[in-house]
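Backbone geometry:

***
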Amino acid sequence: MKKKRLFFSLLTMSIAISAIFFTKEIYNVQAASYIRFNDSKVELEIGHYKTLRIKGTTKKATWSSSNPKVATVSSGGKVTAQASGTTTITANVSGRKLTCKVSVYQIYKKELTLAPGNSYTPKIWGPVRKVEWSSDNQSVATVSDNGVITAQASGNATITAVVNGSKELTSKVTVVSMNQESVVLEVGDWYGHLKTLKVEGTNSKITWTTSNKSVAVVSSKGRVEAKGPGTATITASVGDAKLTCKVKVLKVNAKEFTLAKGETKKLKIDGTTSEITWHSNHKSVATVSEDGTVTAVDKGDAIIMIYVDGRRINARVTVK
């Protein structure tokens, strides 16, 4: 009888122990099924990062990246984008293997400077299937369905590219303009031989150049100085934009001259082929013909006013 009791006691104990281990195993399996990443996929831009979190356990994980050239992962799960492409981040923890697909994109250029009328098409690298484009300021810059950005007027705009319906990439566009598209200057005139050009819409460094130093030179501040008759192009380079101003320099063959009564002198304007209008402010002192011939009439001073290319050039004649 005692042996039977002992047998049943041992049997009961064995069943209880087995039940405990079986229950624990079920619990472990169920617990393992709840271990997962907080994100099943990650989309990043080069240079950006995201930290993956493991839910369902506090145990330490072993991390790895299938392509570290695209994205690396730290021992704490911090994923850092290195180059465009795809990689798989793996975490081994509590007997489970967790994976997360990482896609890395890049837009070029992130910052862009254009002149009105200029166009530029950004490049997007990465696992791109489709892209949707938009501009937050179409009065400054528009963008076509194919990603062609066209500058409209000075100001700032953000161009957004939504890649594969989810990842947003942006390009900052600055549109700049020059205060003058063309100027007419005069050699030898105190005020008329200088003009300061300005680039509006930016505080960035501007590089100024001239196409013809014998006609006009330009300083690092955009100050244009007439040197000789002819034409030159002043260019302001800022970022990707090149702004130009056409400069025409005129020169009269005599700014001040003296004639005796009855004498004549023919004035000429170098640097232009445009129509010229001549006028004397004191015809009783000196007259001027349509071809620029000045005739001394009587003693005194007169100003010969020459209108050409939207500018007035003065020549002073003294009759003795």
Remarks:
- Residues 178-251 form a domain with the Immunoglobulin-like fold (CATH 2.60.40.1080).
